[in-house]
Structures are given as C-alpha cells and as structure tokens.
Amino acid sequence: MIELPESVNLARELKEALKGKKIEKVLPPSSVHKFCWYEGEPEAYDALLKGKKIVSVESYGIYVEIIFDQETKLNFNDGVNIRLLTEEENLPVKYQLAVFLDSGEKLVFTVAMYGGIIAYQGENTNEYYQKNKIGVSAISKEFTNEYWINLIHSVKPTMSLKAFLATEQRIIGIGNGVLQDILFAAKLHPKRKIESLSEEEKDILYQKTKSVLEEMIRKGGRDTEKDMYGNLGNYKTILSKNTYKEGCPVCHGAITKENYLGGSIYYCPNCQPMKK
Ligand SMILES: [Zn+2]
User: Fold this and answer.
1) What is the pTM of this model?
2) How far, in Å, from the CA of 250 to the mean position of ligand 1?
C-alpha cells in the first residue's frame, strides 16, 4: 500500500521520468475490478487526457497526482500499483488503466484489493482527497511540536496510539504500514492510550514519527512496497509481514502479531510494554 514514503518517491520518479511527455492514448480496464473507482466512466479518460502534456507530479499523503494543466489531473491512491513499461514491454493481461505516452512508454495501473484512479477536470471535492491535500505531513515544517501537542489534545484521551496515528489521515500518509516501525522506534505499544503517555513519551513519539518517515523516504520507501520500476524500497522494515518471524532486533524476543482496528499490528511485548 502507498503510504507517505512511497507517495513521495513515486511522485519524484514519475516527475523525473515523465515531465514534458504527452499522452497518446488511454485504454480503459481490460478487466473489471469491483473495488476500483474512477471519476465517471474510464472509457471517457482517453478523450479527457489525449494530447495532454505532463507538467508536474505531486504527492499528498496517500495520493500521487499527475498534473497536466491547471484544470486536468489524474490521481491514484494507496491501493493502486503503478508500473512504467518500456516500448518493448507488453501490457499485462489484467489492468485497470493503461496510459500510452508519446515516448513509447506505458503507465499501467493495477489494483489488488481496492483503489481509486481518478482523472478529472476542475475541482476534486472528494473528502478523503481533500483531507490529504490540505493536511499536514510529518515531514513538513508545519509539523511543529506545538502542532503535535494540539493534535494530541484534539482527540479523546482514551484513543489508542494506532487509532491516533493511523486512522482518519490525522497525519497524512501514515497508515497501518509505517505505523509499526514508528511505534517500535518510540518503544510504545500500539494499544497504549493517549492519556497513558508521559510528557517524555509524547515527545519521543513526535521525534520518531518524523525521523522514521524521513529515513523511509531517504531510502526510497519500504522493502514491502515496489516503485514504478518494480523494485522494492531500500528501507528495511523492522516490523512487517516480511520480518516479524525473525524476532525483535533489540531484545531477540518473539514479535507478537495481532489483528487490531482492521489490520495486523506487530509489536515486541518486551520493548513496547503495555504498562511500565
Ligand atoms: Zn524487543
């Protein structure tokens, strides 16, 4: 899934590779996916995008947006996989959108579980998109200590850390993936309640939210996610489906895997105790 490190890197890669190139044609899905969303009918995307030049690519939280002109944009979000294929490479049998460029390259979009591939003109009023577009990212200069303390005070004191950090896009781009290593680095249990945190723990969590995300971005995303060339990121996840069986890298104890708030959580019960 695309979270902040991946959206930042995908936007950079797309911009470097595609800026100035034009759309030659757009093919609608070769295979209908029940949980892939479009703006209107994807069959109309060709007429909307044909001949448009890519002027920029931006990322907003879990969204990546390709910008053609002030009016026309194409964005995709966390559940969408994107690949850039060369002229020689064939399209996969199943895809949810294929965009041909005047360079001969092709952008292919596929969806595993769910995702949106949204081409539009004018305003995009989708609530989730707006939340990500105007929200504050943990790597921005607006994410000050004061902002953090206000954010903590804006939620119920009984809210768990996972709910606080990884739901509602309260801090854009943080989902159930990057959450795990942030909490591990802060030595905090995902089910700890906000009200149980000491002032020092709040500060550690603030620092680690920023530094773990920055490291993930610097290393080209997580090793559980692929970039648009199909390469895994270079950030080695500590707690993920790939690694949790290896045990805790600090105390060498077993990592616990549980289902919590609609997704797996991983934690070291020794390094991230529920109670002090
Ligand atoms: Zn441990």
Assistant:
1) 0.95
2) 5
